[in-house]
Amino acid sequence: MKERRLRLLLLLLTISPIILFNWKGRDAPQRGMPAAFLRYTTGMVLVRLRGNVPQPGVHRFSDSMTVGTVIKMAAPENARFASDSELFGKRLQNGDVLTVALVDGQPPVFSMEVMKAPERIALGIPLHPDSMSYDDWVSLPGIGPKLAETIMTERQQNGDFGSLDGVLRVPGIGEGKLKIIKRYF
Questions:
Q1: Could you give the 3-state DSSP secondary structure of residue 59?
Q2: Which pLDDT tens digit goes with each residue over 2-46?
Q3: pLDDT at 26
Q4: What would the pLDDT profile of 69-115 be if each residue is shown by its tens digit?
Q5: Does an H or E element contain 97, and which?
């Protein structure tokens, strides 16, 4: 009888940590954001890879990574050509789009551009008024084609805005309009 109690006690001692760890981990996914959604965090950048890469799409990388490092990771068969590219040492920025294009028999061509505003907004990447194109401005609520043209002209004639508050110098943009678009910057 004592031996049976001892075995039962050992079994309970063995199983109890397993039960506790499983019970504690049960609510863990509910604390954070669901895995299907990317969230911008400091120290990381969201970059779209496209073209001749095994896994095209939006990926999260450390903000200290360069284009060359990403090519070595994402498209190692093209890495030997990347060192010849002027982009090789460029550090990644949030919202970059890196394209690897293959032309028959030629070395791959690497190019960089910036995601359009709607995609950056969808991914939660803040916009900056000095790097936006006409189409980016038009995609914002309350900014039509005429106002977008005025914004672009103002920036070309008088220099960068520096911050979103600098956009107030554009005729047609007041505190109300600024308040509407501020959440995207």
A1: strand
A2: 777 766 666 666 666 666 555 544 444 444 444 444 454 568 899
A3: 47
A4: 888 887 777 666 666 667 788 899 899 999 988 878 788 888 899 99
A5: strand 96-101
Residue type at position 65: M
The CA-based angle 124-129-86, given to 5 degrees, is: 85
Closest CA to 164 of 150, 144, 180: 180
Give the rounded distance of the alpha carbon of 39 from its chain centre.
8
Whether pTM exceeds 0.70: no
**Under 8 Å between Cβ of 66 and 54:** no
Structure tokens given for 53? 């890469």
Ramachandran region, residue 68 (left: φ > 0; alpha: ψ -120 to 50; beta: rest): alpha
Strand extents, DSSP E, 26-91: 44-51, 57-62
State how far the Cα of 26 lies from the Cα of 1, in Å rounded to an integer. Answer: 37
